[in-house]
């Protein structure tokens, strides 16, 4: 889920970054060609960043999973006493 | 016996730079042909579209070039080691690699160069990339910047010899880059398989297959 949110955020950020450049290109059909070109560039960047997203997702998952285990441990000790 | 090991050869910033560069240069080439020969080539909607797209692609390639320069200069800090061939590489390595590409590759012999993260390129690649990345690309970019900003940089353009000279320089440099591009793509297919060298540039990981021959050690104790 976090990965998907990350991908959407990066895509939105890239879109926001390239939109003014595309808007600067004036009128007719040229704007569409520039949008397609910049969209492809953004896609290249996002796809190349996938492994980093997955790694971050794994790290966060491991971090929260680990926290849950350590939080449960003292409760078990109290019950034993 | 063959042993396959994987090495992380191409880090993420370099992969992003490479594919942005590739896509940008192909776009620049196609739009450039239309701009140069508008009567014969009409790939994009119109002449104006081709010029605008050429300018935008030029900016993207320049930005990706800056990313490449920043990464190797300030993050990896191994630009000179990677791109400048050593004396030995110039004296022997160039010939050895040329022999591989021209002859021994077709005899099924292995590539004499084994890439590592600190020595990615063979002597021929080093020499070619040195000329392209430190001479051709900056000059091409610079002449492109001048052509985008004709009015503000009028004096500089006149100093070079005028617009026609500048356009001729830009066009000739682009032809050189185009010639390199075809060679680059062809040589990229000379791995164990056609995609063996292309895949690492997409994934970052290269598979090195080293042949290991089992030797009989007569002094070793025999298993019972």
The percentage helix of chain B is 55-70%
What are the secondary-structure elements of chain B, in order, as H or E?
EHHHHHHHHE
| Unreliably modeled segments of chain B | 211-224
Helix content of chain A: over 70%
- Give the tally of β-strands of chain B: 2
Helix count of chain A equals 2
- Cα radius of gyration of chain A in angstroms: 22 Å
Rg of chain B, Cα atoms, Å? 22 Å
Q: Major β-sheet of chain A, in short?
A: none
Q: What order do the helices and strands of chain A follow? A: HH
Average pLDDT of chain B: 90
Write a compact overview of the structure shown:
The complex is a heterodimer of chains A (about 80) and B (about 220). Chain A is mostly helical.
Task: Describe the secondary structure blueprint for this structure.
The complex is a heterodimer of chains A (81) and B (224).
Chain A: H1 2-24, H2 30-80
Chain B: E1 2-8, H1 12-36, H2 47-75, H3 79-83, H4 87-102, H5 123-148, H6 154-160, H7 163-188, H8 198-203, E2 205-211
Antiparallel strand pairs in B: 1-2
Helix pairs in contact in B: 1-2, 2-5, 5-7
Task: Characterize the structure shown.
Chain A is mostly helical and about 80 residues long. Chain A has one domain. Chain A has 2 helices and no strands. In chain A, helix 1 (about 1-25) packs antiparallel against helix 2. The two termini of chain A are about 40 Å apart. The relative contact order of chain A is 0.11. With about 220 residues, chain B is mainly α. Chain B folds into 2 domains: about 10-75, no CATH class; about 90-224. Chain B is built from 8 helices and 2 strands, in the order βααααααααβ. Chain B has helices spanning about 10-35, 45-75, 80-85, 85-100, 125-150, 155-160, 165-190, 200-205, and strands at about 1-10, 205-210. The model of chain B is unreliable at about 210-224 (pLDDT under 50). The interface of A and B includes residues 33, 34, 41 and 48 of A.
